[in-house]
Amino acid sequence: MSSSHKRYDMTQAMELTVTTPAASAEHTLNTPQPGDPVAGATRLETDSLGSVEIPAEAYWGIHTARAIDNFPISRRPISVYPDLVNALAIVKQAAARANREIGVLDAWKAEWIEEACERVRAGEFHDQFVVGVIQGGAGTSTNMNANEVIANVALVAHGHPQGSYDVLHPLDDVNRSQSTNDVYPTAVKLAMCFSLDRLMAEHALLRDSFGAKGHEFANVLKVGRTQLQDAVPMTLGQEFHGFATTLTEDLERMRHTLPLLWEINLGATAIGTGITADPAYAATVCRHLRELTGFEHVTAADLVEATSDAGVFMTLSGVLKRSAIKLSKICNDLRLLSSGPQAGFGEINLPPRQAGSSIMPGKVNPVIPEVVNQVAFAVAGADVTVTMAAEGGQLQLNAFEPVIAHSLLQSLAWMTGGCRTLRINCIDGITANLDRLDTMVSTSVGVVTALTPYIGYAAASALAKTALLTHRNIADLVVDAELMSRERVMKLISPARLSGLETITSAIPVVD
């Protein structure tokens, strides 16, 4: 069969792109309904390269079919990112409104396109967005897939079979005044706005969960550590409050990044010069996009620069990496603090989530912090990918935005899921091992530090040495040495004093 007229074999394409039942489900076409074309029926579509037979019931067309053939790489269709599919529909809807307003698209065509976009945004036809997330062409295949699906959804809704492009055309009508080079980056940024909003909400809930534990453990003394060695006392509440504070800082970085994603280049068309678009289009489509999303979108001041620039993606990636790595450090601390239960730190107890071993009965592992650690590793790796893809752009366009989009949307989704499972399945259920913490504090030489201003460094050193050798209670040693009364020493080593919550500002007399 010649390349200019071949039948598109969906089964063969799926064998190339799908290996698991879950992945296959993502590619499955809409279930045929009564009255639909019989199984195996096709329609013929033609482009500048030739003709291809497309499954008659498919809402995508020839350009999508070629992309499925060309990019059997990721085994993941763009529909794995619903935010991206919805963002594409919103951009097409805003474009239809703008084109109707400036008079370059018939009102009925704009209405049909809007109706189709609304259905996609409602969750219909996502299974028709089948091109792989990793693709050449700077996102052209994704844009073509969106154009074809929206056109065919509109056609079928108004009584025309798929492929009736003489009535409503994917490129002449759905893609009017647009180019992949302004549609795709705008849709990607919009998808990231949706995803980042969701992450910030989960991140804030996780922050609040740590804060609640900080309040719950406010009076629980423990031994602080530096370089994994015993340091001075603190409260367990201070430790968890510190976790909440660092998450708050990262949340602020995310909030500062969100407005950067609102700048768009719609109206730039191919390279930023606006060729094929009406001079009024850029401002008009931006206004409609603002109305549809609720975000304060602005048109970039320099559309040539904006069309080739990937700086905002590096900024977002850096913020995500920072947050992920700091969250991973917290998870490392949780695993250390809960280690044991007999031969480790054993200061806190994580909720038992599943059996930890197929050979060791009774073993329970810190699986929730572990999975968040792995999310952080993936986010850090994605940051390298985004950095290299941004650097690899050439001249008036960055051809590598598909891998940037995939990397960042995956990072956003994984971090959102990681924050949620860490909060629900771990942090909310943490308890303190009070007896062990009390024993460790009472025998810790770090407590002596609080007494140094009162008994002097030499006496404190002697007490510390004795405590290490005998493992006796520090308070008992001070009283036995007749350095101060029990009432006095207990006040000085109270939780408030040891943790710094109660400070001393006056001169301290040193005991001889």
From TrEMBL:
Q: Which Gene3D superfamilies match?
A: Fumarase/aspartase (C-terminal domain), Fumarase/aspartase (Central domain), Fumarase/aspartase (N-terminal domain)
Q: Name one Pfam family in it.
A: FumaraseC_C
Tell me the ranges covered by the Fumarate lyase N-terminal domain, including all copies. Answer: 50-381
CDD domains attached to this UniProt entry: Aspartase (cd01357)
Which GO molecular function terms does the record list? aspartate ammonia-lyase activity
One Gene Ontology cellular component: cytosol
The UniProt keyword set, sorted, is:
Lyase
The processes (GO biological process) annotated in the record are: aspartate metabolic process; tricarboxylic acid cycle
Keyword Transcription regulation assigned: no
The protein's matches in InterPro entries, at most eight in alphabetical order, are given as:
Aspartate_Ammonia-Lyase, Fumarase/histidase_N, Fumarase_C_C, Fumarate_lyase_CS, Fumarate_lyase_fam, Fumarate_lyase_N, L-Aspartase-like
In terms of PROSITE patterns, this protein maps to: FUMARATE_LYASES
UniProt domain Fumarase C C-terminal: residue ranges: 448-498
| Annotated NCBIfam families | PRK12273.1
Q: What is the protein named?
A: Aspartate ammonia-lyase
Record organism: Herbiconiux ginsengi
